[in-house]
Amino acid sequence: MWRPFLRLRLFALLFETAGPPPLHRLVQSGAALAVWTGLSRIPGMAETTVFVATVLTALAIGHAANARTLPEKVGHEATALSLIVFFCLIAVIYGIILLSPDPVWVQHLFTIVPALFALGCFLDIVSRTEGFGRDWWPDDAMNKARPMLTRAFLLKHLSMAVLNATLVASVSLDAWVMWFAVLPLVNHYLTAGLTTTVLLDAGE
User: Fold this and answer.
1) Residue ranges of E strands in the chain
2) Which residues, in sequence order, are CB contacts of 199 under 8 Å at separation 6+?
3) Residue 78: what pLDDT?
4) What is the dihedral of CA 19, 23, 25, 26, to 10 degrees?
5) CA of 36: how far to CAs of 39, 53, 195, in Å?
6) Per-residue DSSP letter, 138
7) What residues form the membrane-spanning segments (predicted)?
């Protein structure tokens, strides 16, 4: 009788191990809500302008926080190409956001990006080279779990791409911004939960 509840509790524990989100994730979420709410109250402010400012603010905070780890990654020869691709992708994303005449284009970036990550995972699985996976989990201690992590995150990225595309097609821009604001927190707990699950299964 209690077995289903026990399984749910164990599943919840996987996310509890993540602990509270990093400060910059909370700042991202709060800043997105503050900019969207604040600028929307300014008379005559175009919705597209408010939307672009909201997205750019949240992304800039996230990228500024992640930049702290770049010096460590640069030291790994295996990640040099990935860093180049990463910076090019960031430049393209910012360019599309700034030049886009329609918020829908920007919204669909959050479908395309996880889809590209899913493609990287898929190519790793097919080629069995672990090049993409090693960039994300470079430690030798992760060797056993890396193939399983790649498969798990393939599903995660695909799910996020499908979810975002569904939201873009079915909810208002205001509702989508609410989703965008909590997305850093959702990613934090999903990543931690999946990683914990795989490591436990792999016996790491």
Assistant:
1) none
2) 145
3) 45
4) 90
5) 6, 8, 33
6) -
7) 49-66, 78-99, 105-127
Annotated domain spans of the chain: 23-202
Q: Which residues of the chain have pLDDT under 50?
A: 1, 71, 73-78, 204
HSE on the CB side for 125, CA within 13 Å?
Answer: 14
- Rounded to the nearest 10 degrees, how much is the dihedral formed by the CA atoms of 80, 146, 68, 92? 60
Closest CA to 186 of 15, 55, 43: 15
* Confidence (pTM): 0.78
Torsional class of 19: left (φ above 0), alpha (ψ -120 to 50), beta (otherwise): left
Q: What is the largest CA-CA distance in the chain?
A: 59
* Cα separation, 201 vs 204, whole angstroms: 8
- Residues in CB range of 48: below 8 A, 6 or more apart: 101, 102, 103
Instruction: Kindly state the tokens that stand for 71.
Output: 């010096």
Residue with the two structure tokens 């709410």: 37
List % helix, strand, coil for the chain (3-state, nearest 5).
Answer: 85, 0, 15
Closest-CA residue to 96 (of 123, 122, 59, 43):
59
- pLDDT of res. 94: 80
